[in-house]
Amino acid sequence: MNLQDYFTLDFLYYETFTKRMNTTWGSLFCNEKQPNYYDANHAHK
User: What is the edge-to-edge ordering of all strands in the sheet holding 27-30?
Assistant: First the structure.
């Protein structure tokens, strides 16, 4: 498993409970129903 495989699996996991928005600098994960849950609401470069 290489680093890209890790990120692919990581993003697939996050997408099971939050929405991902791609930006020019990375990805933003946001779930308004779980505002205090770090994994559901964070940025990832």
Answer: 19-22, 27-30, 42-44
User: Which residue bears the tokens 């779980």?
Assistant: 34
Q: How much is the pTM?
A: 0.75
DSSP 8-state secondary structure symbol assigned to residue 39: G
Residue 34 token pair: 């779980």
The 10 Å Cβ neighbour count of residue 1 is 7
Residue-wise pLDDT tens digits, 10-35: 999 999 999 999 999 999 999 999 99
Identify which of 10, 17, 6, 7 has the alpha carbon closest to the alpha carbon of residue 41.
Answer: 17
